[in-house]
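<goal> How does this chain fold?
<body> The protein record starts here
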Amino acid sequence: MATKAKKIYEDFIQAEGPREVNIDHFTKDVTLRNLVDLSPATFDLAQKRIFALMEKDSFGRFLRSEQYQDLLVN
C-alpha cells in the first residue's frame, strides 16, 4: 500500500508531478504528512478538494461544452 500511495502522491499531488491536479499547498502538505502514517483516510482531504473543484469548475464547463451539447442532440 505504501508504494501505491507514494506513486499517487508523486503523480497527482506533488508539485511538478506528471499529472498534477490544481489543489492548494495546505492540502498538499497535509497529504504528504499523511503518507508517513498511512490509513484509509490518507487522501481524504485531497479527494474532497478535487471533487469540490470539479463540481465548481470542470463539471460545469463540461456540461456547457460543444462536445457534450452535440451528444445531447444526437
